[in-house]
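Annex B. Sample input.
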Amino acid sequence: MAQFSFRLLVTPLLLALVAGLAGCGDDGPRRLKAPDGRALGRVVGWVTLDGQPLAGAQIDFNNKMSRTCSAGTDENGYYKLKFNRRIAGAPVGEHSVSVGLFGNNSEDPTEEPLPSIYNTKSILKTTVHEGHNVISFHLTTPKGIGEVAELAEVTGLVLFNGNPLVGAKIEFQAERSGTARGVTDPNGRYQLVFTETRPGAVVGPNRVVISRTDADGEETIREVYNVSSTLHHFVKPGENDFNFSLSSKLPSSKDKPPAKPPANPKPSGDGC
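Annex B, continued. Sample output.
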């Protein structure tokens, strides 16, 4: 009888223990935390340069409220961020990001081969969330120029025969180097982007090209706006808003100014 009572006592205890263990699993994996208790997120990703894996680079996540979290990229451009030597991840929140081949401890940082917009004057930003984060960076180098071009914000409206032109491609081709691109939305509005990480267009004179093709790839607007474009704008530092009003019709003869008579008309042979 005593043995039977012991079994009755042990069985509920085992069931309670198993239920407790199962309940712990419902909360998912244990959350990462910094030594001071702040929440961390696991961060991994890939870094490429001009479409190729960037090996041997140092990537730093900088949060104003915390220390810098760093990692190095392997031969595939893959990195896994560390909060410190023992703890992986980075604090949850906004971060500015820098990527360099020499890192922050370079004796001569002016020799950094990557553009300064990725390190000393970084424009890279990201947000770390709790849990697992995959954050990749696809960097590009300027073509044919030693320094990164100065950019300015460019937005505007494109009308066609008085109506918003939807789905048109617009390009600002800088005289110095580089092309900024945009696409008009359902309201005919556009915003230019120089690269996937740099909005805007190059400051200075730009040739403007506007095109829109149909389902067969045929151009639907006149060549004077694209292939033989005569549109030009000067992009100034700061904010720029350029509007375009396109027409499907060629100017009629009525719209042309009358031809000017020659300055010194020759007398006819019949004159006295």
